Amino acid sequence: MRKVKFVNGEYYHIYNRGVDKRTIFECQKDLDRFFLSMKEFNILAPIGSIYENFLAKAREKKQTKKFGNSVPKLLKEDELVGFICYNLLPNHYHFILQQLIDRGITKFMHKLSLGYTNHFNKIYKRSGSLFQGEYKAIHIDSNEYLLHLSAYVNLNDRVHNLEKFGNSVPKLLKSSWDEYIDYGNGKNEKSFCKKDIILDQFGSSLDYKKFAEDSLKIIKENKEIKKHLLEC
Fold this sequence. Notes:
Elements: E1 11-17, H1 28-40, H2 50-67, E2 81-89, E3 92-99, H3 104-124, E4 136-140, H4 143-154, H5 156-159, E5 174-175, H6 177-182, H7 196-199, H8 205-221, H9 223-229
Antiparallel strand pairs: 1-3, 1-4, 2-3, 2-5
Helix pairs in contact: 1-3, 4-8, 8-9
C-alpha cells in the first residue's frame, strides 16, 4: 500500500523510469504521444483511447457548428490533476502535480501509464511492463520545498548533464522550463502548466530563471539535498 496519501489541493512530486532503466521514448513521435497522453487522460470521464477521444471531439465540434450549444458535450472536462511542472527525458519523467479531485492523481497516473505502455508495446511489438514498478510519489510539504523542486524538475536534463553532449545525442527532451521563461512575453496563452503558484512569488520570469539556475547549482553540488528531493 502506498505510504503517501493524496489530498485534494496538495502538491506532489511524481516520477518514474523505464524498467531496467530502459528507454521509454525511442523517437520524437513517442515523446509527442506521451505528452498528448498527459493532456488527453487528464479528465474524469473515461475516453477509451486517444484516437477514439479525438474522433469524439471532432464529431462534437461538427455537431456544435450545425446545432449550436444545444448539443450536449460528449466529454466531461473535469481535470483530475493540475500540472505545475514536468520534464520528460529519454528513460524517465518528473511531474509536480496538484490533486484536484478525490483520487485524481491515482486515476490520472493509471490512465497515463497503462495507455502509454499499451501504445509503446503495440508499436515496438513487445509485452510486459514498460515502467519500473509503481510510480514514486512524494508530498511537497512546504513552499520552500515546492520552489526548489520546481527548479529541479524544470531543469532535470541539466541535473543529468545532458546538455554537455550538444547535438551528439537525440534531443528527446521536453520540459515546462520554456513555459516559465516565456511567461509574460505573450507566448503563454495556450500554456500547459499552472505556473502562478510559482511565478507569483517572483517579480518576473527572469527573476525565477535566476533563482532556478542558482538553486540547481546548489542541488548538483549537495548530494544530501538531491537525495531529499528524491526520497521515497
